[in-house]
Amino acid sequence: MELSILLLLAVLTGLLLLLARGHPKAQRHLPPGPRPLPFLGNLLQMDRNGLLKSFLKLREKYGDVFTVYLGPRPVVMLCGTEALREALVDHAEDFAGRGPIAVVEQVFQGYGVVFANGERWKTLRRFSLATMRDFGMGKRSVEERIQEEAQCLVQELRKSKGALLDPTFFFHAITANIICSIVFGERFAYKDPAFLRLLDMFFQSFTLISSFSSQVFELFSNFLKYFPGTHRQVYKNLQEVNAFIGRNVEKHRETLDPSAPRDLIDTYLLRMDKEKSNPNTEFHHRNLILTSLSLFFAGTETTSTTLRYGFLLMLKYPHITEKVHKEIDQVIGSHRPPTLDDRAKMPYTDAVIHEIQRFGDLLPIGVPRMVTRDTHFRGYIIPKGTEVFPILSSALHDPNYFEKPDDFNPDHFLDAKGALKKSEAFIPFSLGKRICLGEGIARTELFLFFTTVLQNFSVATSVAPEDIDLTPQESGVGKLPPKYEIRFVPR
After folding, report:
1. Any one cellular component term from GO for this entry (predicted)?
2. Measured in Å, how far apart are the chain's first and last C-alpha atoms?
3. Which of 118, 168, 289, 380 has the fewest CB atoms within 10 Å, counting from its CB?
């Protein structure tokens, strides 16, 4: 559908050129970039392989800071470790706004902790961080929850008896259950029908959001929203998830004990009740539903997709898997579960996990930012409200920091003595005021789930390592690994 529309737009180009009258005065001081066509913007400079490749190609000509017109609107691109750090850290307040993602804009509309701005965002972020901390984040209790979930996964994988299986469901289930325990105060059985449906909606939606058609929609959403397409399926899916969350909120209302809040929903309901006389409160039903959706979506998809990439890479590079097994055997052994304290004694495994995140490059163009005021940056003026894309991929593949950025190599994170080496360019959780609020919990999950599985299993597949294809299934807002099957063989 989108391709036929693009052809129609191309036919109209000649007529639109007659309407060209240059840029508004406020946009003349923007960073350089290719000259846009009216309405179509820089469509003719877009690579058919997607937005990321288009932006990286334009970077070669215009440098690390440039402007691209996505349809009629200008978006400033930030590339490279230095430019990203200068903007998001040194000018943190200026770049603290959140830009929309067109394909989910109809769902969020500026509500919920991820897509809110201004005081709403500050209020919801403070609440979310404090509540997640109270219910485990940053405490040993969240480590215990992850350890328990990891053992449930081991039991489930043992049932497969080394048969080939698609690991997608399992990695979704374990990460979703950690968020469920914080938001809902409970975990779900892997065969619970409602839980299975929830996971399917998440996976399907993340795949659609990262698809080529969603990237086309990003360029012309004001026009394409009136036609059938990916955006309508995403909206339908996420509304179903919102209904699931809403039903749980009602159950919480009926059983709420003000003296003993059980989870994030209880804590939010108590705050709603406390502020019910405040007409300007941000603690209302809509923000509760969309904050819960934000935490679910971010907390489930990012970590589970990273784990999927990780185990595909372990199949591709068995010599690396062998070294991880050796370090697990030396530090942990086979008679106790891994703990977070083990991480400091396991630099090789930690480096492998870092490299999985770097190579996996899960959110290559970053989640859009927006400048909160007229901003002077590197000699340019970026007007208040202008969208900014922090191209995280350009840092994670920065040749100034990673010797062979296109290769999977844990040595990128090891010094000459074999100790873990930090890198300024390692920013998978982004930077600055909008850094992922679940970074701590995600890092804990990745270490404990990864080491627990490899403590108990060897991994194998029916494809020779040299024939394993790492080409992403989708690469848009998110980057998804290709589908694959894996054997978990008890050690």
Report:
1. endoplasmic reticulum membrane
2. 50
3. 118
